[in-house]
Design goal:
149 residues, mainly alpha, two-stranded parallel ribbon, 2 strands
Length: 149
């Protein structure tokens, strides 16, 4: 899945947890679990490095725009505690994909080989499955935004 899809799903899930320190920790753990679930669903991928980088650039921009708008709405309409719970869920949801920018920019592997192997094995990717990522992201975005009003 695209990083934006993971983060949007984490944002949507965050509202299921109480805005407390314990709730934030639980939201983080749920976000990391959601990453594994979403990566197990057949989704877009298995493309050339050049195509991946082009999509990753767009994904990063969309991710920044969504996160910024989401937090403007959350902080404005809800509490700081709720924003913290959302941030931890969103970070947990994207955590396992942080290896890609580290690999691309610094040529560094941040995950142990066993974890990296597990994360690779659960992926079912195909170049034509971009509608799965788009649909999942849109549904999660609608769910997340509906809680802010």
């Amino acid at each position: 899945m695209l990083a934006t899809t993971h983060v949007i799903t984490g944002a949507a899930m965050s509202f299921a947890f109480s805005p407390t320190p314990t709730g934030a920790i639980t939201a983080f753990l749920a976000g990391t679990a959601s990453h594994i679930v979403l990566d197990s669903v057949p989704h877009w991928g298995r493309v050339s490095e050049e195509a991946f980088i082009k999509v990753a650039r767009i994904d990063g921009i969309v991710l920044l725009i969504f996160s910024s708008l989401f937090f403007l709405l959350v902080v404005d309409n809800l509490t700081i505690e709720r924003a913290l719970t959302a941030a931890t869920a969103m970070f947990g949801a994207v955590l396992f994909d942080l290896d890609k920018p580290f690999r691309h920019f610094f040529n560094v592997e941040i995950w142990p080989s066993r974890l990296d192997s597990f994360l690779s094995k659960i992926q079912t990717e195909h170049p034509r499955l971009w509608p799965v990522d788009l649909t999942t992201g849109l549904i999660s975005a609608l769910f997340a935004i509906s809680y802010t009003f």
